[in-house]
Amino acid sequence: MASLVALSACSGSTGTPAARPSPITEAQSAAMQPRDTHLAQLYETSCKACHTVRDTGAPLTGDRNAWDPRWAKGEQELTRNAVAGLNGMPPGGQCFACKPEDYAALIRFMAGR
């Protein structure tokens, strides 16, 4: 049930498939985990609910094609967007335990950097 609650926070859902194919599948994205146990816990309880499901509108973890245009904005801008929220992403990505450095590390992981 927690997954359904977390998934509902991903309000960017369009209900339609992604416009271009991704080089990874949702299952591959869902299987990815940060090596750092602290980050893995934060990812598991916040980021994973949206960043492993294509129809949420969030770029899939490890999908560099989806992340590259965002990454071009710079890591600081991505971190600011994560903290403030953007489009369908709620402020802080619903990561209530995240510190600014956690956001940056999680973004690097999800973007494949």
UniProtKB/TrEMBL annotation:
Organism listed in the record: Sphingomonas kyeonggiensis
Domain of life: Bacteria
Family annotation (PANTHER family): CYTOCHROME C5, PTHR40942
Protein name in the entry: Cytochrome c5
Keyword Metal-binding belongs to the record: yes
Swiss-Prot/TrEMBL keywords: Electron transport, Heme, Iron, Metal-binding, Transport
One Pfam family here: Cytochrome_CBB3
Single GO MF descriptor: electron transfer activity
Coiled-coil region: none
